[in-house]
Amino acid sequence: MPQPIEVIGGIDNHTDVHQAAVIDTIGRHLATEAFPTTPAGYRRLLAWLRSHGQVMAVGMEGTGSFGAELARYLRANQIAVIEVERPDRRARRAAGKSAPVDAYAAATAVLSGRANGTPKDRDGKVEAIRALRVVRASAVKARTQTTNQIKSLIITAPAAVREALRSLTTTELIRRLAASRPGTDLTAPAAAVKLALKRLAKRFQHLSEEIADADAELRALITRTAPGLLALPGVGTETAGQLLVTAGDNPDRLVSEASFAHLCAAAPVPASSGRTDRHRLNRGGDRQANRRCTQSCWFACVTTHAPATTWHGAPSRGSRRRTSSDALNASSRTRSTAT
What we know:
By secondary structure, this protein is of the alpha/beta class. The protein has helices spanning 39-50, 68-76, 89-95, 99-112, 125-156, 159-165, 170-178, 189-225, 237-247, 257-263, 287-304, 324-338, and strands at residues 6-12, 17-24, 29-36, 54-60, 81-83, 268-270, 279-281.
């Protein structure tokens, strides 16, 4: 019996519809079709791909957003999923922009080898940690906004209200406002301001309880996922959670520590030209992971009394930074000596 041809799929992900395309191993466009983003649509899409031949791999954009569930479904059915980066603007202008064009471009990127990244698995404990961290981050942001609103209202409040509250710390301020009795005559500005401050203080307390609950849940999940991570100096719940989310449920896709450093924007990249040989830090990668790594390093340096490393040629401690006037005076002395 004739052997089935080998094909490569490409998928352009959207909210309600996924556009799929198929090419063969020499790059010929075979077919394209749209499928709904439902379990029945995923089954139809996989059957449609296999109807064209043996599926070697499927290239997808957005495996962490619109295509997350489809990527999980394809991996569960032994289909290799490849993360495809968004093409640059010059290539997109040359090829045009449409759902079928983007689907064919994703398949072509896999065939050419330009796309070879393994996407994160989003079906384990790390995905649960990511979901809880999203809720915690929004609660922290809302609590900060609530604090700013309270202090802004106090600034513009009537003098009797402002003078009683302006010297209090945030903790004491929230406690006193939450227990206050603003009164019922809301036609008076002072009573209305007191009522607004009381409601904001109640909101602050509710958000603080939500953050505390999320911290307890995250600590339990992180302890079960990576028991030794929280024992490291300078690594707390937030830092450990961010590093785990950055690595994903399948950290084996990171082949070395250097690859993880590159993912965290902490690896040097060459920046040389001609006879100049130098490197700079990677400006890409996960900026939040980079931030957490930096905080952990500074904490470790402070607690262990280790001196912070400096770049070669940096001024030593206690030395004055050389200014432009210093350079001008030195240049003048050199010229006078030469004459």
